[in-house]
Amino acid sequence: MVTLEKNNTPALRVLFAAGADPGIPLIFLAPDGSTKISNIKGYATAVFERNHHISSSTQLDNSDILAMLTNQPVIEMPSLLIVRWPHRPVQPQLSRHRAGLFASQNSGTSGSQTKLSPQQAVMTISSQKMPTFSHNPPAIKPRVYNPHSATDRKQLVENQGNTFSYIKKKDRDGIKKVSVRIGPVHLINGLGVYAEKEISKSISTTPVLIGEYRGERVDRNKEDPNSLYHFNLFDRKRSRVIGGIDANHQRNWCAFVNHSHTPNLEVIQMWDGKETYIGFFPCKDIKKGEQLFIDYGYKYFHHLPEAIRFSPLYLHSSDNWKSETELFLDNKAFYHPLVVHFDAQMVERLKLKTNTWIVPKLFIFILNNELSKLSQELEQLEHVDLYALALQENKLAAQAQEHLTALMFAAYLGRTDCINLLLQAKADADRRMLRTGYNAFHILLLGFASHKQVATIGKNLLAEMHDHFYSDNNGLTLLNHLVKENNIRGLELVLNYALQEKIELTEYLFAPVMAGEKELDLFDYCIATKSFTILCTLIEKVFSSQNTFLASLKNLMKKNSLFEAALLQSLSKEELTNLKEVLIQTLPKSFVNKPSKLLNSLNQIIKNKIAEEANEEEEKEMTISPGF
Prior knowledge:
InterPro entries: Ankyrin_rpt, Ankyrin_rpt-contain_sf, LegAS4-like_SET, SET_dom, SET_dom_sf. By secondary structure, the protein is α+β, with helices and mostly antiparallel strands. 36% of the residues lie in helices and 16% in strands. Helix 19 (532-543) runs parallel beside helix 22 (573-586).
């Protein structure tokens, strides 16, 4: 019989490695004299559960047991091992609260459990271990092309089936030659452009022109409606399209730059004194290895021919040729070893395609609000925005991935302190879910945060965001989501931030947004959804500003062009009266004392509604029912 006074784990590992039965009895002697009978397998399981904060439903095989126990000197193998715990303050055991939280959904555990908060019920950890993934590299490494190499250009054209020719024309004066590569992009099963070296946004504050979009110049009446590579050219003085550049049959590397709602390149129409051309400028510093993006624009995808129409993915500059399996294997040590399940509400709100996921350990610490462990994990991580991976039939299904990051998960739960730690660790607040286009702020509005928390967390997120008003895959911006959620506090926060940072709001408030089958601006959106209180907040904030948008709004209200006439006509008499009262309370006295055409129009519509109701009542009274 052997007594181990302190660390018994090394001895147990040696015993097991030497061939001891995992069921060999162990007697644990507590400081108070009580005993607990267990075995090697039970002890290893307890170590595993303690380290990963899970319940006692875990099933380990022999390789798991060996992995749980550390490698230390050999001791004689006994038939009975007594492990005496030294006298020390009793350590708290796994609480029922935590055990219940992490219990398997299918474990059928009975007995009383501490009631979970809604946030803690969002994710449960099963007893199922993550599947074993292996990656077999292709026999031929995916080809990456240097657009400045004649050999690579020729190979690129041939590998793309000779469907286009590469333009060899010398660059214009003023274009800075940058080191880029054309290579595969796993998520779209196509090609993209990557920075071979860092690309700076500017040199001594002067914007850097790094490329020209080249192709065939076509007249406005001769453009190919089926081309995916057509860039419009505009007459700015007359505000009309005068033609375009089509890279469908002739192109350079700029035609391979993919779309993103958070681009790192800006497209600017240029004039060199002889002709108009399209220039690409970095709008942020681009790191080596990052993918280059431009924004194709909201209308590009909606106006594609129906036969080839598709919804864009919200690609990130870190997305490259690596598959989900490769990315997981590169970062396996930072993922939790057991499969988790998101609750039905989260799946529905975030439009996830499955509830079964493998998540980074960061998610566990955020769920439990364990700040010290979260901080320690962040210090070890090279990639803070490591995202959850969707499982379908024990595979990392490409079509189910959403790139849900720890920052997004923390935003959904409303974990203020966790979000602060993640932002300090440089988590990307601009990052978006792959298919919905939701960023952390969008998700904050869909989750558990109160309006007060939205104001607190939202302020921190806004300060770290660069792209505040880009739309999701429904064409909705943060402003639209705030209106939809009737979140006045959040709307005030965003509008105050925009006014403080002197962000011109005109294009965002008057940009067409899909509402059902109609395209409406934000003001009409408020009318269509009967969100009059939100409308009041919008108008109030605009009138408190001093910018060009204020003048535009005043002009529209005077002309009665702010709201679509048909929408006003669709309101009931009570709704119209409510809208009128909201406007009178919100608008400056000058607008109320000297009524604009808008108020006059509202008064007239209300009178017409009253007259219509009176006529209907009169007709009812004049109708004689049969039998009287």
